[in-house]
Amino acid sequence: MPKNLFITGHIRTGKSTLLKSMIDPIKTITGGFFVQRLFIQDETRAFRLVDVSKENYIPNRHVEDIADLKDLMAVNNKEKKLYYEVFKTVGVSALEHACKEKKLILMDELGRIETKVPEFMDAVFKALDSSIPVLGVIKKESNFFLDKVRVHPNITVIDMDEYGLERTKEEIFNFLSKCGF
Predict the structure, then answer these.
(1) Torsion over CA: 81, 112, 121, 60 (sign)
(2) pLDDT at position 68, please?
């Protein structure tokens, strides 16, 4: 089995929530990043890129306002605004730190915004080629970056829509066990 495992599936099917439940017991040895969905009055209003070694792994967060939040990558107000710099500041540094200091790398999730940030894409491939196993979520769509990740020789991708929750959970458990966790 390749040393990196990614989960894919339709939006809001519990992929990140499942990863969180599997990662929480080993969070201290885990580095990398996650995308945090921010809700205001039950509406998705923004997304943050978060270094999992610096903040609790909370994929969905309800907030009153986003004005004071740092590391925003996308804001959905009247029009969508994207912030690419966060992939260089938070994303690259989280992956570099994880490759040097941690035993497991989290990438939750790889998608489309990062296709505009070559430094981040390079850091992703360096992590995939490192000796540290990667567990992540990959958006269920096609672009040059995601397609290249999917065909990487060190990767297995599991489609949660096909496997279902329980079988996906079992596959993640087996992956983590084979990695020694």
Answers:
(1) positive
(2) 87
Distance (Å, whole) CA 173 – CA 169: 6
157 DSSP β-pair partners: 6
Partnered with residue 32 across adjacent β-strands are 106
The full 3-state SS of 2-31, as one line of letters, equals CCEEEEECCCCCCHHHHHHHHHHHHHHHEE
Positions of the chain with pLDDT under 50: 1
Helix, strand or coil, per DSSP, at residue 118: helix
For the chain, domains (ranges, CATH) are 4-178 (3.40.50.300)
Residue with tokens 């495992």: 5
Is the sign of the CA dihedral 37, 40, 46, 51 positive or negative?
negative
- Beta pairing class for 80-82 and 72-76: antiparallel
